[in-house]
Amino acid sequence: EKGGYDYFMLKEIAEQPKAVADTLLGRIDEAGRLALDEVHIPDHVLREVNKVVIVACGTAYHAGMIAKYAIEHWTRVPCETELASEFRYRDPILDQRTLVIAISQSGETMDTLMALRHAREQGAKVLAICNTNGSTIPRESDAVLYTHAGPEVAVASTKAFLTQLVACYLVALYLGQVRGTKWGDEIGSVIRELSQIATEVDKVLGTMEPVRELARSLADKNTVLFLGRHVGFPVALEGALKLKELAYMHAEGFAAGELKHGPIALIEDDLPVVVVVPSPRGRSVLHDKIVSNIQEIRARGARTIVIAEEGDDTVVPYADHLVRIPATPTLLQPLVATVPLQVFACELATARGNEVDQPRNLAKSVTVE
Ligand code: M6R
């Protein structure tokens, strides 16, 4: 059932273009508008929403962090993303106009379930983004948008993450559509790019051999750091989480802007640092800032592993290893930038002789608090 792959994780990484395409299927109509009738929250309720709160754990939380950038940019509705395990205990401010989005692959994560129960008790509407039909989280929510990743067996979440991102983008765009905010050229072109994105994910998968080779060469390292800005920051966190759970290595993700506030002290000779570089088009400020971050860490001896868009030549002089990803709008970049990080962690785990599909101490779904 591993379909010729050594591990479920490899199979699931390879299934990502299909998972992404399946999650989009039937949800964008011929006129290029979102058709999400399955979200049974009436438009007038969505128009009244004055705050979005996303709750999730682990990888799903990283998807939620990325969703915050998309929701606020496309809808201008304030959005916060919080670890489900922290949410309930700080007495959060919620009411009928709050839309809570609970993201969960399994639909059985206890922390997320408890968070949504708390939200509903306060009168908030809860929309679940879930991969498992009929599981507890969607059953207890007001509405559900299913991701169509198919069953995910490996403990490390990969295809579910990409489809959670797609679902989050769809919800963000849909909110924009219903509320009429920023519904212009930008949104139209994002929808067009989104409908092509599975092909781009597939392209990335076709270029991963150098990443595998690089991972094998780092098998003896103790630490790998990950840096990103904007949506690249949660991608960095996700890259670090994958490496922790699979390779049992010390891995940390930082917002690149935080370097000078502490983490730069960690940089030493030959320390591998993965940097996710935003597109130089569009928000070029972000791009230029991260290029100077790469220069700074390299000047202190870091071995830089740079993930950058095709055609972005400014990074070439500062990259010890360069991983190319296709050009995408900034907000969609996580869909392509995460893939090399998954492959990297999987290969490192293999090189270190770890059990890829069943990492030590972990369960696929965490049904206790
Ligand atoms: O089933 P869920 O999406 O609610 O699970 C949340 C986390 O437990 C999960 O994403 C976990 O972090 C993964 N093992 C990460 O690869």
TrEMBL record:
E.C. no: 2.6.1.16
Stretches assigned to the SIS domain: 41-181, 214-359
Location(s), subcellular: Cytoplasm
Enzyme class: transferase
Keyword Cytoplasm recorded: yes
GO terms under cellular component: cytosol
Active-site residues, Swiss-Prot/TrEMBL: 364
Entry's Gene Ontology molecular function annotations: carbohydrate derivative binding; glutamine-fructose-6-phosphate transaminase (isomerizing) activity
Catalyzed reactions per annotation: D-fructose 6-phosphate + L-glutamine = D-glucosamine 6-phosphate + L-glutamate
Domain of life, per lineage: Bacteria
A GO BP entry: carbohydrate metabolic process
The entry's keywords: Aminotransferase, Cytoplasm, Glutamine amidotransferase, Repeat, Transferase
Subunit and partners: Homodimer.
Primary role: Catalyzes the first step in hexosamine metabolism, converting fructose-6P into glucosamine-6P using glutamine as a nitrogen source.
Protein name per UniProt: Glutamine--fructose-6-phosphate aminotransferase [isomerizing]
Organism expressing this protein natively: Streptomyces carminius
Lineage: Bacteria, Bacillati, Actinomycetota, Actinomycetes, Kitasatosporales
Section covered of the full-length record: 247 to 615 of 615
